[in-house]
Design a protein that fits this description.
Elements lengths: L1 H9 L19 E2 H9 L6 H12 L2 H9 L3 E5 L5 H10 L6 E5 L7 H12 L9 H15 L3 E6 L9 H11 L4 E6 L11 H7 L1 E5 L18 E2 L2 H13 L3 H16 L9 E2 H10 L6 H14 L3 E4 L5 E4 L4 H9 L4
Parallel strand pairs: 1-7, 2-5, 2-6, 3-4, 4-5
Antiparallel strand pairs: 8-10, 9-10
Helix pairs in contact: 6-7, 8-9, 11-14
Length: about 325
């Protein structure tokens, strides 16, 4: 009956479409820099009410600390960015503790980056691991032996790159490590569907509504918008975001590759830096200790689309950063801006 109705009233021809598109607007689109400047100078509204809201949230800080100390993990939800509130919690109650911040909204963040940051920067381990499970076992055993505590902050644990089942399985195993305390945020309306009953119990979440009504400026800084004129500024911003999520040694390797490419920017026949030359320079700077370490790092760069590889006529593998000289030079002037 329903099918007959739509068949009778539908017709074979599609409905008319409008030609009113964004490209026909007389208002020129802003570039990313002008958009950010306009947002920063936008007048704030309801300041008094927002301050009162923050004060109510800050009253929970000592309670949060007590609950974290008793083996619970915190999951913060609600409308608005939670970065300011979390930074206040970190700088006051947790100012003398070991902390690590993960930005789950990064377009190329992976669970491997999180584990590598813990083992290399927190536990100061220089070796490699055969698998993620081996790395998790090492983290678990080390924290149990040393009795240290790590407060792991994950902005947007429901981010596109972290919401997969395999990633969440690793994170809930990490949540069960003695000494690791997780404070995470979610913003997607369907975020609770990420976890089944088993994962939820392993995370041992305590849920807190921390609605702030703050704009998601940092969380959406890498997003493409139809209202924004796309330019190299956005590409450079994305590059900086990705590099911030890497280890210091990884950034050092990228820095050497970028310097070499800038030195040959006027060479029209330049096809990239050979793997052997990069390895020698990295060894001189103590950035890697073996070919395998550098290979693993380059694989990570490829996953982030930071580099391209191409074999020359002699069969030598050459590495190239897919950015023009001007943009690469701008990055080298102020790498982490």
């Amino acid at each position: 009956m329903v099918e007959e109705y739509f068949h009778a009233h539908g017709g074979a021809r599609p409905g008319p479409t409008s030609d009113r598109t964004l490209s026909r607007l007389n208002i020129p689109r802003m570039d990313q820099a002008r958009l950010q400047s306009a947002l920063q100078h936008a007048p704030a509204a309801h300041i008094q009410h927002l301050q009162q809201l923050y004060q109510e949230h800050r009253c929970h800080f000592h309670k949060w600390m007590l609950q974290l100390s008793n083996g619970f993990n915190l999951l913060l939800y609600g409308l608005g960015s939670k970065r300011v509130l979390i930074d206040q919690f970190r700088s006051t109650i947790l100012r003398d503790t070991v902390q690590m911040v993960v930005n789950g909204y990064f377009p190329s963040i992976t669970v491997k980056h999180i584990l590598n940051s813990i083992t290399e920067e927190v536990l100061e381990h220089t070796g490699s691991f055969r698998s993620v499970q081996d790395q998790l076992t090492f983290i678990k055993d080390t924290f149990e032996e040393t009795g240290e505590e790590l407060f792991l902050f994950i902005h947007n644990i429901d981010g596109p790159m972290l919401r997969g089942e395999k990633v969440q399985t690793v994170l809930c195993q990490l949540a069960q490590v003695g000494g690791v305390r997780i404070i995470a945020t979610i913003d997607h309306i369907n975020a609770p569907l990420i976890w089944d009953q088993n994962k939820s119990s392993r995370f041992n979440w305590l849920w807190y509504d921390v609605t702030s009504y703050e704009p998601y400026v940092e969380e959406t800084s890498y997003e493409n918008s139809l209202m924004v004129q796309q330019s190299g500024v956005l590409a450079l911003s994305s590059l900086v975001h990705v590099l911030r999520s890497l280890t210091p040694n990884a950034r050092g390797v990228f820095h050497l590759l970028a310097l070499y490419q800038l030195e040959h920017k006027d060479d029209s026949s330049y096809i990239g830096m050979s793997f052997h030359d990069l390895y020698q320079r990295c060894r001189e700077k103590f950035l890697v200790h073996s070919h395998l370490t550098l290979r693993a790092q380059l694989t990570e760069f490829k996953d982030h689309k930071l580099i391209r590889t191409k074999k020359g006529s002699d069969g030598v593998e050459n590495l190239l950063i897919p950015l023009d000289g001007a943009m690469l030079a701008e990055y080298m002037e102020n790498p982490m801006s």
